[in-house]
Amino acid sequence: MLKGKDLLSIHSLSVDEVEEILKFAEELKSKQKNGIEHKILKGKTLGMIFEKSSTRTRVSFETGMYQLGGHALFLSSKDLQLGRGEPIKDTARVLSRYLDGIMIRTFGHERVEELAKYADIPVINGLTDLLHPCQVLTDLLTIREHKGKNMVNLKMAYVGDGNNMAHSYLYGAAKVGMNISIATPDDYRPDSHIIMNAIADAEDTGAEIDIMKDPIKAVEGADIIATDTWASMGQESEHDQRKKIFAPYQVNAELLKHAKSDAIVLHCLPAYRGEEITEEIFEKNAQVIFDEAENRLHVQKAIMALTMCD
Ligand code: CP
Ligand code: NVA
Which ligand is nearest to the CA of 160? Predict the structure, then answer.
């Protein structure tokens, strides 16, 4: 179903395609744990364009490609002609002549869309200012592992900045029918067009979507609580101001009293302890947070195999 397609946004995937990715990720994870090789991308090359920093995305894509029998090329925009002004549409057409797939991490989402428009090989979004689909597909797998496959009766609460993670959680929850409450300060709400798209998807799956200001109300009865940095990549100069504005949105023991007693906490990492999450809550949830980090590998192997296979 996904063969030859791009993966730019969870919103553009069908419900069945999301299920296909999660199911195949489970299969690949089990194979890897049992030492069974699956070299489905033998002879294929993935180019990985990075215009922002990364630990998890870079290492998990590169290792995943190796495990699938292929090869990954790290392409920093600092070293590419792209960084000296070569148009993205030319870069797309050149790379399509050498590679079998491209993963890109960049700033404006329109850069990924332009790359995908001009490339005739699959393009995977490794994070833009707007969306982080690979991370949220990974989080859905992690939720399945810890809370069961039926996500319809679960409630997720996201507390903090209405950023790329918040947007992708909205899309992910809407696709799998999971209820989601997002609490942000007034000026940091998720984009309204993303909310509208998620509401449209939720009409098909029955997910309830609530956007609010009150973090306590958002976490009431939640099974999963997620947060993310208050200052994303590119917003470093706003860090001090954001620290003050977001202080009431910290995920701490007091806030978690309002969630279910067996609630899990997710964090895409990197985490800033003492800011969006306390050391205590981070360490209490370290098992699930590092399962989440590990699952990047399995989910992205599934995405690469499904989009790039012959
Ligand atoms: N969560 C995540 O995308 O991590 P990196 O920025 O390290 O890739
Ligand atoms: N919102 C964060 C996510 C990092 C993985 C950022 O864009 O920097």
Answer: 2
